[in-house]
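Reader question, answered in our methods column.
A reader sent in the components of a multi-part assembly and asked whether the whole thing could be modeled at once rather than chain by chain. We filled in our standard form and ran it. Here is what they sent:
COMPLEX SIZE: three components
ENTRIES:
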Amino acid sequence: MATSQIKGLAGALFLLLGMALCANTASAQAQNTCLDCHGALDPPLQVTAEQFASDIHAQKGLTCAGCHGGDPTKADTDAMSKAAGFRGKVQRSQIPELCGHCHSDGAYMRQYNPSLRTDQLAQYKTSVHGQRLAHGDTKVAVCIDCHGVHGLRPASDARSKVNPLNVAETCSRCHSNAEYMKEYKIPTDQFADYSKSVHHEAMVIRGDLSAPTCTTCHGNHGAAPPGVGSVKNVCATCHVFQSQMFDKSSHKAAFQAAGLPGCVVCHSNHDVKHPSDVMLGTGPGSVCVRCHTPGDRCDRATTAIHADLTRLKDAIQETDGVLAVAESSGMEVSESRLGQDQARDSLTKARVTIHSFRKELVDQDIQAGLKINATDLQAGNNALRERTYRRVGLGISVLAILIVLLGLRAYLRLIEQNPKSESHVES
Amino acid sequence: MQSQDSPAAGPPRRRIVEVLLGGGLLASFASFFYPVLRYLIPPRVVDLGGDAVVAAKVGELRPNGSKIFRFGSRPGLLVMTSEGEYRALSAVCTHLSCTVQYRSDLHEIWCACHNGLYDLNGRNISGPPPRPLEAFHVHVRGDEIVVSRVREA
Amino acid sequence: MSLLAGARDWLDERFHWAELIAPLKKKTVPLHKLSPWYFLGGITLFLFMIQVCTGILLLLYYRPGANESFESVQYIMTRVQFGWLVRSIHSYAANLMILTAFAHMFSVVFLRAYRKPRELTWVSGMLLLFLAMGFGFSGYLLPWNTLAFFATKVGTEIAGQVPLIGHGIMVFLRGGEDVTGATVTRFFGFHVAVLPLLTTLLVLVHLALVQYFGMSVPPGVEARWKASPAEARQMKFFPNFFLRELMAWYIALGVLGALAAILPWDLGTKADPFASAPAGIRPEWYFMFMFQTLKEIPAKVWFLDGEVVGILVFGAAGALWLLLPFFDPLARGRGRKFIMGAAIFALSYIIAMTLYGYKPN
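And here is the structure of the entire assembly that came back:
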């Protein structure tokens, strides 16, 4: 062969080698020819390489064939070979089983992420979604509706649809759609309500990932509304003190007898607002009057509790005002400020103790708070007295200074009246 | 220069001015030196600074007991374990800043607000708290239990 | 015989007291329309003496160190009797002293008092001004609060931008790579030992020179008095001028006391090196014009870093300003006008940039 021909052949070989290498590195660890065509198609058949690259399954080395079957090494439609097990689009009713094929296999999942749970499918089967699916309803949520499918991210990724910050919105895609939910005859205002709640504020605005979202109370894979009797248990996971007090109170038996769902009666389930003192007594915001008659024994008790809480709150506010004045005049009151924090803690505790529905227990906390507050008020008034003392002292020394100034002026005038005191010196 | 010797020599006006000036100077010096003299007297509370504080006296706590004490401008928690060791931690919960307490039944530190739990080293082990509690040094000095911040440069 | 006369005789027999103080008795101050400007030097000295006294008192209770500085200042403000007064006076007088020092310096420029033979008086005075600003910078960190911490961080970082030796200077100032407790200890040493020593020496030199050469008279007045000597008027220093100075000093005391009692100096919050800088970090007002200038310079000037250019410009300006009296004889007529123009520009620039730095945005 001539030198030029050899060069040409070598060049072609290099090119082919390069392409082969590139092709290898381009498709992660596994070759995935499906994307070659499906990346260029229109939706709903479109799955681009970028989309798939963000998928956790793809990153772990799974190809399209892992769920859809077929041969990902063949080009064109040869890849969709029935012989290689190609099944095309998976039926909605078969999706949970398909995912569960791997995700319920503990030994298999251990190879990828040993700490992942493997009971999702079993849980799903107990959920409302799972049970309805078993009865042929394909409108309910299956795995891919919440988790996504071709660009699936782990729940810890903030962009994932099942990350705690995004869960409520994901659920609302169906549950707030009145048209879609028409035949189920359940409310569709939960997300709207939740968005007004203090839990939503904690999660989304304060960024507290420990705040509850839909799945916290309803479960995620085994999603179902908690039974009337178990609502309290759900709230009690975080709100332990209130729950313990409620258990020992008169209202527990009463609610049980009336078939009332515990905490939800006064606090609502989805739009849980920040509770306020007006929920007591007989005012417009009162929840007690829903059951109790105005003027009866219980009503009198709640009105008294309300009055006590207001008293403590006002006392704390008054002391805070005094401390603020003292502080802005330069007095040091940080110890009293700390005391006020404890007084506020007492107020919070008193509000928690309401759930015992016993006035004498609430009184204990109120008295403790009032005592601390009184000490701080005393300190604040002392600071104001010190402030006055300083200004009086200032006044005295300024007076002395003024006398000196006047005296100096008079003295100078005296000694300079006499012309002899100013000597004229030739410059 | 005017003579400054005998007061009777000068006119009465001069006398008034001299008295005024002298009195004013005396008064002003007094108003300057009075605070300085009071300043030089050490205050009764010999503060150890926000660096260290006497949290309790020996014998005040029983094994598996605890005490809340003031450290700087925040509360601290002093715990005596069942083995008789002292632990001191910040009592400010790292979730929403409630004051934590020692649970002698659990041998752990608990936050009543949202059921957060910490172990005796301050590590957050359960519930919403995202970070451990700040730990302090404890040492016994005579009959005083002194809690101090972990030293930095 | 009165006590005073007795004491005088006792001293005279041993130290020739009368001879010693004779020159002071003869000391006079020129009297003309611009004489009131002569007060500024004395007031600056008085404020320095107040700083020394209040500073020594603060030394009795202050402790330097990351875990002690803030707490000891808090202790002084809240537990020590009249601690709030001593500390607040120290802080206010510091600012007032730097203000009067600047005013004194500019009055000397505009009254052309730096001319021959007073060149070294000017140089010693400028060095004293630099020392005063050093006092301000080092003292500001000592309470170890958030504002001070970040102002020091930014300030030393800017110092670190000087070409070649900048990093070395920064490490020397900070006592390490970062601002830590070691920086407080170091600044404390500068503030209570190094700077006072240098300042005392320079003040003695400065006063000796002032005493030696007497008070300078502005050129216009000088010419007038040369033409008609009968118009020249002097005032005796003791007691006339001094008593007037005393009035000014007493007024300053009154102002300081009022400020301390009605607007005690802020304690701030304890510095946390790991927290992020709060919004609105800025240096003390006497550094503001430099700080603001550096902020306005674009990031890159030609091929140099904007900050480096700023530092070099200020360094050069400072050096030229220090050597001002030596340019004076070279400048005639137009040159003199140029110096005056430069001085007016410098003063206006400093005032404008300082005000601009405090503009809310």
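What stands out: The first strand of chain B starts at residue 52 and ends at 57. The radius of gyration of chain B is 30 Å.
Send us your own complexes using the same form.
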